[in-house]
Amino acid sequence: MPYLKQIKIGKKILRFPVYFPDATRGVIRSLDNRDLLEAGIEGLILNPYHLMSLLKTKTIKKLGGIKAYMNWPGLAITDSGGWQLLSLIYKDRSFGRVTDEGVVFYKGSLGEKQKHVLTPERSIQVQMDLKADILICLDDCPRKHPSIEELETSVRRTIDWARRCKTEYEKQLKKRRFTEVRPLLLAVVQGGSDKKLRRECARELVKIGFDGYGWGGWTANKKGNLDLDTARFIVAQLPENKPKFALGVGYPWDIINSFKVGYHIFDCVIPTREARHKRLYVWTKDPNRVNILKTNSRKLFRFFYPDKAKYRADSKRVDQFCDCRLCQNHSRAYLHHLFKIGDSLAWRLSTIHNLRIYSKLIEILRKSVS
User: Fold this and answer.
1) DSSP three-state, residue 270
2) Radius of gyration of the chain from Cα atoms?
3) 248: alpha, beta or left, given left = phi > 0 and alpha = psi -120 to 50?
């Protein structure tokens, strides 16, 4: 099957594969835009639920959209808010409730008492106000171990909500008179590990028609590994000429394996969150001299924990194969010191490093299909 190499969004070219770090509340913690661009990051994924509960979307719209608000020159995806059903409401019912009409959140982004209603229509309106390049339909993302009845409800709602999102999207395009850059609209395929439900969801979404499709829900199998069987099955149900988004994927080796079965877009909080928690990724081999697609992907990386005492006087780089600001300018000993004294520079340098590991991986994967 031919691999889709790029798509056009207005005058911008989005090359595949691509990784978008999660700037959930409009920021990658401790980094500015120059840090992100220097690390090779081309786009960010933002969350409408968190942004609408922290900021008035009308204010962001008035200021020119979320990218203008952040002064971000790259691309932006806005997640629908569907993941919050899994991470917040289905995990803790005090956060809200879900009905066929939509979602009601009882709390805001910081856990404060607020009420926010997010219907498919409202989700599209908010994402349009944020002026992202790629929008995602609101979907019903079930809990980690759902019953078959819960999966059936999730698929039914996801299809219905996607249809309503598409209708509202077309209405907003006419209302707002988009003449140059039309944001793309992606729908999410739900169904858990049930292939019959995954097929039903995918086929109905394809009938409605979208610019791309996402692998939704929990992406791990019962053993805790990436569920590549389901991933491969979903790709087989979707049009070859449409981008596929592996939502929430993932670890570097999971990105490699998802790429192999046909996915184009990846996002996750892993590299930025783990950098702040003193876990960095390093190459075990020179990535420029190894065939990434034919090597055991898990063995290409190892973890580096800078707070370990053995690095207190270590003058070596964190990663001899990395060209990031940390590895080119500072030693393991210095990073150890920064974490020990709790200085925010430790966060910043570690986050830049982990993001550069991901962007370098993307560069190599692109070369493999060029």
Assistant:
1) helix
2) 21
3) left
Containing H/E element for 13?
Answer: strand 12-15
Residue 343 falls in the annotated catalytic set: no
In percent, how much of the chain has pLDDT > 90? Answer: 77
Round to whole Å and give the CA distance between 15 and 359: 12
Nearest CA among 87, 85, 49, 42 for reference residue 265: 42
pLDDT-derived band at 81, boundaries 50, 70, 90: low
- 79, 133, 140, 227: the catalytic one is 79
Distances (CA, A) of 176 to 125, 183, 231: 11, 12, 36
Stated pTM of the model: 0.95
Other beta carbons less than 10 A from residue 27's beta carbon: 13
The residue assigned the tokens 């009938």 is: 207
- Find the mean pLDDT for residues 104-121: 84
Picking from 125, 126, 72, 82, the residue whose alpha carbon sits closest to that of residue 105 is 82
Active-site position among 22, 133, 139, 267: 267
Nearest of 44, 48, 45 to residue 56 by alpha carbon: 48
Question: What does the angle CA 241 – CA 242 – CA 248 come to, to the nearest 5 degrees?
Answer: 140
User: Does 194 participate in catalysis according to the annotation?
Assistant: no
The one-character DSSP state at 56 is -
Alpha-carbon distance of 71 to 293, in angstroms, equals: 36
Is residue 191 reached through a cis peptide bond, with omega within 30 degrees of 0 on the bond before it?
no
pLDDT in tens, 41-68: 999 999 888 888 777 778 888 899 999 9
- By the 10 Å C-beta count (0-12 exposed, 13-18 middle, 19+ buried), 108 is classed as middle
> Tens digit of pLDDT for each residue in 136-148?
999 998 888 899 9
What single-letter amino acid sits at 351?
Answer: T
> How far is it, in rounded angstroms, from Cα 172 to Cα 166?
10
Name residues whose C-beta falls within 8 Å of residue 100's C-beta, 6 or more positions apart in sequence: 157, 160
Q: Tell me, what DSSP letter sits at residue 42?
A: -
Question: Contact 166/186 with Cβ under 8 angstroms?
Answer: no
DSSP letter, residue 219:
-
Question: Please, what are the domains in the chain?
Answer: 6-269 (3.20.20.105), 276-369 (no CATH)
Q: Count the Cβ atoms, other than its own, within 10 Å of residue 346.
A: 24
